[in-house]
């Protein structure tokens, strides 16, 4: 799976938590904290739930400090899920053999 | 309410089916322009009720931060915008005063029905993962008080009142009580409802009080012999009410009037043989205001539009004021009944009557029902000085509330 980028994350944020009035989310916001962007803990919970739904990977809302951190955690989680699936497949093929 | 004379109403905010903002609503109301029509927000055909008073030209995104939109029901969007308008009208800036001396007291009857319907559809249609985290509060009846408080940084004593159509009068009375106790200096108080959606409508159907007449102009005719139930509506109003001394000290401009008295009663259980509590509530409000019935210039009636309830209200009015003893009006014939918003809007309307010395009309009603005579203001507004007005509201289940508003110098 290709790397999840900021514009994918921004689409999710806009859809579920609403656009920011303070910042242009299409601008350089990678290192702006969600608090500064105006999103509270419940907004992060909502974003986390949507990311889980869309990418099948869990990022805890308590760790989502900035978009950059969120994307790093999200991509790590997606990769490790993919690795695990590969490992499972390998395991089951070995059993089958 | 012995301390009631120490309060002043300094700001109004209105969202109504026949007008957005106080002046647009008031102009439409005096002109007899109704906001009642065939339901547009969804296809009502197939439901027994097809007519409502909808707020259709309200653009929440034009007034509110974008982040608030996914987390608010329409009733909350109405409440937040009307609260902004009321604060601006009063010239009251929460950020320029002690936040802990500012309260928010709103009424709600059903909460955020449309939001709730949408999320429950997701729950049962696609599973719990799709349900918005904001469902945790957005459909809650207490949410308007909370969101107004957060948005404006008003951190003083705040409450929510649930008394169906009567709740907003109790909320206003409690705001005045808190001012009198010197708990707060100012409050936003009112009520909003926006449950015109399929779920909100069907939830009201078993009560059997909604009008099933499909012609908008004939659907809601309180005190008429053709009365056949009421039309549901959406919207409401909010008032800024302040202690007179602190309002004066901060240089508040216009004063619409004051809240002079209130009482609420509860009906006896059906079949008890005891009389309904409405007349007692009216007398209680007059007593609290220190007024004789003859001092009331106009009554804003509850006007249920249900023959037995209209009759009971007419009898209570005749008992207190004598048959035809006081002008009576029901401008809600142009909006429908707004649940928690209705009595708040009537209170705002009564204050505008005081300001402009004119009583808005009751529209639609033309053929008085049998029963005690009423001096109904029908068809066109009645110009007359208004010093004291009585607002009556009854909530389903037995709530009766009455509130007196008075000209500031009365």
What does this structure look like?
The complex is a heterodimer of chains A (97) and B (410). With 97 residues, chain A is mostly helical. Chain A has a single domain, classed as Non-ribosomal Peptide Synthetase Peptidyl Carrier Protein, Chain A (Orthogonal Bundle). Chain A contains four helices and no strands. Chain A has helices at residues 6-17, 34-37, 41-55, 67-96. In chain A, helix 1 crosses helix 3. The radius of gyration of chain A is 16 Å and the shape is elongated. The model of chain A has no long low-confidence stretch (mean pLDDT 88). By secondary structure, chain B is an alpha/beta fold. In chain B, a hairpin with a 2-residue loop joins strand 1 (7-16) and strand 2. In chain B, helix 2 packs across helix 5. In chain B, the strands form four sheets. In chain B, strands 2-1-8-7-5-6 form a six-stranded mixed sheet, sandwiched between helices. A six-stranded mixed sheet of chain B has the order 9-16-15-10-11-13, sandwiched between helices. Chain B has a two-stranded antiparallel sheet with strand order 3-4. The longest helix of chain B has 17 residues, at 74-90. Chain B folds into two domains: 4-249, Thiolase/Chalcone synthase (Peroxisomal Thiolase, Chain A, domain 1); 260-406, Peroxisomal Thiolase, Chain A, domain 1 (3-Layer(aba) Sandwich), CATH 3.40.47. Chains A and B meet through helix 3 of A and loops of B.
């Amino acid at each position: 799976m290709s790397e999840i980028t900021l514009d994918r994350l921004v689409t999710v944020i806009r859809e579920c938590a609403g656009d920011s009035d303070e910042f242009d989310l299409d601008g350089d916001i990678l290192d702006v904290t969600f608090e500064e962007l105006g999103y509270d803990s419940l907004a992060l919970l909502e974003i986390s739930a949507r990311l889980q739904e869309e990418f099948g990977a869990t990022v805890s809302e308590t760790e989502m400090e900035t978009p950059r951190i969120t994307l790093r955690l999200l991509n790590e989680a997606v990769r490790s899920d993919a690795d695990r699936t590969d490992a499972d497949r390998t395991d089951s093929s070995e059993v089958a053999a | 309410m012995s301390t009631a004379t120490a309060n002043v109403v300094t700001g109004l905010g209105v969202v109504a089916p026949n007008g957005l903002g106080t002046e647009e609503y008031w102009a439409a109301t005096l002109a007899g322009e109704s906001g009642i029509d065939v339901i547009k927000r969804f296809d009502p055909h197939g439901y027994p009720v097809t007519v409502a008073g909808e707020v259709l030209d309200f653009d929440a995104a034009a007034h509110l931060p974008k982040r608030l939109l996914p987390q608010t029901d329409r009733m909350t969007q109405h409440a937040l915008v009307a609260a902004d308008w009321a604060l601006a009208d009063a010239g009251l800036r929460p950020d320029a005063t002690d936040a802990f001396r500012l309260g928010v007291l709103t009424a709600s009857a059903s909460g955020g029905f449309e939001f709730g319907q949408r999320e429950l559809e997701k729950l049962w249609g696609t599973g719990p993962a799709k349900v918005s985290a904001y469902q945790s509060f957005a459909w809650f009846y207490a949410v308007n008080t909370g969101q107004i408080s957060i948005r404006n940084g008003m951190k003083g004593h705040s409450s929510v009142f649930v008394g169906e159509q009567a709740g907003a009068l109790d909320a206003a009375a409690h705001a005045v009580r808190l001012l009198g106790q010197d708990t707060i200096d100012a409050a936003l108080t009112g009520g909003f409802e926006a449950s015109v959606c399929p779920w909100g409508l069907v939830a009201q159907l078993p009560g059997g009080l909604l009008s099933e007449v499909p012609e908008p102009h004939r659907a809601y005719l309180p005190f008429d012999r053709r009365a056949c139930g009421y039309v549901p509506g959406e919207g409401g109003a909010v008032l800024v009410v302040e202690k007179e001394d602190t309002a004066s000290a901060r240089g508040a401009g216009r004063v619409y009037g004051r809240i002079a008295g209130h009482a609420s009663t509860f009906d006896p259980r059906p079949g008890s043989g005891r009389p309904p509590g409405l007349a007692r509530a009216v007398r209680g409000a007059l007593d609290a205001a220190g007024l004789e019935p003859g001092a009331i210039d106009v009554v804003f009636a509850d006007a249920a539009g249900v023959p037995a309830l209209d009759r009971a209200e007419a009898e209570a009015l005749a008992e207190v004021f004598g048959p035809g003893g006081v002008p009576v009006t029901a401008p809600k014939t142009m909006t429908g009944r707004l649940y928690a918003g209705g009595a708040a809007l009537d209170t705002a309307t009564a204050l505008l009557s005081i300001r402009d010395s004119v009583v808005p009309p009751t529209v639609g009603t033309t053929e008085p029902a049998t029963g005690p005579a009423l001096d109904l203001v029908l068809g066109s507004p009645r110009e007359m000085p208004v010093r004291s007005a009585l607002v009556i509201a009854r909530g389903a289940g037995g709530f009766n509330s009455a509130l007196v508003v008075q000209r500031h110098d009365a």
